[in-house]
Amino acid sequence: MSLAEVRSLCKSYPGFELRDVSFDLEPGRITGFIGRNGAGKTTTIKCMLNLVRPSSGGVSYFGMPLVGNEDAIKPRIGYSTGAVNYYPQKKIRDIVAVTRTFFPNWDEAAYREYLEIFAIDENKRPRELSEGMKVKFNLLLALSHRAEILILDEPTSGLDPFSREELIEDFKRLRDRGAAILFSTHIISDVEKCADDIAYISKGRLAAALPREDFRASFGSEGETLEETVIRMERSAANA
C-alpha cells in the first residue's frame, strides 16, 4: 500500500511549468527523484508539502488528502533540504528540548538511538557541524517524532564523496526499517547506489516513474550506467 500518492500535479510560473506529475511512495523503498537543476524537483516537493499551492492536482498521505488534513499528516512526515536553519549558537540539546514540545508523538528512545547511530554530539552547535552532519541532524529530528515518510531535497548536494557515501548507507538503513524515502538529487550516481524506484523529471514533465530495474530495461542500453542513460535521455530531449 502506498503511503503517499502524488496525482497530476501542475504548477505554473513565468517561464516554467510543472505538468502532470504523478508517482507513489511505498514503505521500505527509496524513490530516487532525479533530473537536472531546474527540472521541477523542488517545485514538486514544495507542492507535496503544501508550501506552494499547485495549479491543479493533489497529494494524499496515508489515504488522506493533504489539503484539510495537514495537522494529522505533517507530524508523520520528515523533511530535509540538507541545510540547518536553527540558531547557530545554541547547543543541539537546547534546540532538541524546544523541538520536542511541538510533537506529541516525540519518541525519546528513538531520539537516543539515532543520536548514537548518527554519532551526533548534543553539546555541539549547528555552526560546528560539517555539512554531512547537518543533514544527519535534520534526519535525527524527523526520526525522533517517528516520521514514516522522509522527503529529502538534494540532501547530498555539496558534500564530499565520503560524506555522501556515509549518508547513502544511512538512507539504506532507514529504508530497511520501513521508512518511505523520496530522495531528490541531480547526482545520479548517488541514486544508483540506493534507489529502489526512479522518478525522472525533465523540463517540468515526469518522463518515467518505475522500479529501477524496469527503468533500466525500458530506457537503458547495454553496458550503460544509470547516469549515462539519463544524460543520453536529456540530450535527446534537448534536441527534440
What overall geometry do the principal axes of the alpha carbons give?
A: globular
The CATH class label is Alpha Beta
Task: Enter the CATH topology name.
Answer: Rossmann fold
Helix content: 25-40%
CATH superfamily: P-loop containing nucleotide triphosphate hydrolases
Give a written overview of the molecule:
Helices cover 37% and strands 25% of the residues. The protein is of the alpha/beta class and 240 residues long. The chain has a single domain (4-83, 147-239), classed as Rossmann fold (3-Layer(aba) Sandwich). The strands form two sheets. It has a six-stranded mixed beta sheet with strand order 6-7-8-3-9-10, with helices on both faces. The protein has a four-stranded antiparallel beta sheet with strand order 2-1-4-5, covered by helices on one side. Strand 9 and strand 10 (205-211) form a beta hairpin. Helix 4 packs antiparallel against helix 5.
